[in-house]
């Protein structure tokens, strides 16, 4: 294994994006996808390229992602690295780039990490699969941000062409 994709996903969309990136890299035998919860079983020193994908829930990335980057920054700075965030705010064009997305900017500022490539992708609002509390909290957030509020439907904001483009850029790393 030479390359590693680490993900933190709340409802599975970030993992789907990781799988798509792996498929487009066309080096499937050299790439492993690992949940952040199982990363302690991987020797990061032996990895050539590290890609980290993290989703947003209720306005922030999973704290474990930030802790992982800070704890392992001494290794990350010696590798080719990439980071991408998956969030519903990125559905808005004015917040769909790493330079304009508040979550990406905040994460990179807090961790003081400078990956070689950074991206942000729109996430998915999957009302039918949320429990009562999540469904209503997310519906309220969508209401105040002019997003979809019909809880009978799912809304996918991931631009899969942008995911593919990012994967192709990762090939060049």
**Outline type:** globular
Mean pLDDT over the residues: 93
The CATH architecture of the largest domain comes to 3-Layer(aba) Sandwich
Give the count of structural domains.
2
Cα distance spanning the termini = 16 Å
Radius of gyration: 16 Å
**Most strands sheet:** 6 strands, mixed
Order of helix and strand elements from N to C terminus:
EHEEEHEHEEHEH
Low-confidence stretches: none
DSSP helical segment count: 5
Category from helices, strands and their pairing: alpha/beta
CATH hierarchy class name of the largest domain: Alpha Beta
**Assigned CATH superfamily of the largest domain:** Flavodoxin domain
CATH third-level topology of the largest domain: Rossmann fold
Beta-strand percent range:
15-25%
Fraction of residues in helix? 25-40%
Strand tally is 8
Task: Describe what this molecule looks like in 3D.
- The protein is of the alpha/beta class and 173 residues long.
- The chain has helices spanning 13-25, 63-76, 102-111, 132-144, 160-171; strands spanning 3-8, 31-35, 49-57, 60-61, 80-87, 117-122, 124-126, 154-156.
- It folds into 2 domains: 3-123 and 158-171, Flavodoxin domain (Rossmann fold); 125-156, no CATH class.
- It has 5 helices and 8 strands, in the order βαβββαβαββαβα.
- Strands 1, 2, 3, 4, 5 and 6 form a 6-stranded mixed beta sheet that branches. A two-stranded antiparallel ribbon has the order 7-8.
- Strand 3 and strand 4 (60-61) form a beta hairpin.
- The model has no long low-confidence stretch (mean pLDDT 93).
């Amino acid at each position: 294994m030479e390359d590693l994709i680490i993900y933190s996903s709340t409802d599975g969309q970030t993992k789907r994006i990781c799988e798509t990136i792996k498929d487009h890299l066309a080096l499937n035998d050299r790439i492993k996808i690992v949940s952040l919860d199982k990363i302690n079983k991987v020797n990061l020193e032996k990895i050539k390229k590290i890609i980290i994908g993290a989703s947003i829930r209720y306005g922030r990335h999973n704290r474990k992602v930030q802790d992982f980057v800070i704890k392992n920054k001494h290794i990350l700075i010696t590798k080719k690295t990439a980071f991408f965030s998956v969030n519903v705010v990125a559905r808005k064009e004015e917040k769909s780039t790493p330079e304009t997305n508040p979550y990406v900017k905040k994460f990179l500022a807090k961790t003081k990490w400078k990956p070689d490539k950074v991206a942000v992708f729109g996430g998915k609002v999957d009302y039918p699969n949320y429990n009562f509390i999540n469904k209503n909290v997310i519906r309220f957030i969508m209401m105040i941000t002019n997003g979809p509020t019909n809880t009978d439907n799912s809304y996918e904001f991931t631009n899969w062409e942008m995911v593919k483009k990012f994967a192709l850029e990762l090939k060049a790393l």
